[in-house]
Design brief:
91 residues, mainly alpha, Helicase, Ruva Protein, domain 3, 5 helices
């Protein structure tokens, strides 16, 4: 699992938050003249789409972390998983 999410997020985004993330990714793809959404599109809209939708734990607040900090950590952990999966698929 995602350690940053487990340690620092008290409650996550609602289904509407996920819909906003997908819609933002679609808009970004269209603005870049593409008909498909890439992971890069989702990453680009993650902070503005999610920063106000998550609740931080006391541990996150005690460490002085903002929602943006925690989202960035989650995205970094997701990148590691993607890289590992991509490497496994290429063999």
């Amino acid at each position: 699992g995602c350690q940053a999410a487990k340690s620092f997020i008290r409650y996550g985004a609602s289904p509407r938050g996920a819909q906003t993330l997908v819609l933002g990714g679609r808009v970004r793809a269209l603005l870049n003249e593409r008909m498909h959404v890439s992971i890069a599109d989702i990453r680009a809209v993650a902070l503005p789409a999610m920063r106000h939708r998550i609740g931080l734990t006391f541990d996150a607040e005690a460490e002085g972390l903002s929602s943006d900090d925690v989202i960035a950590r989650v995205l970094n952990e997701v990148t590691e998983v993607e890289g590992r999966v991509a490497a496994e698929l290429s063999h």
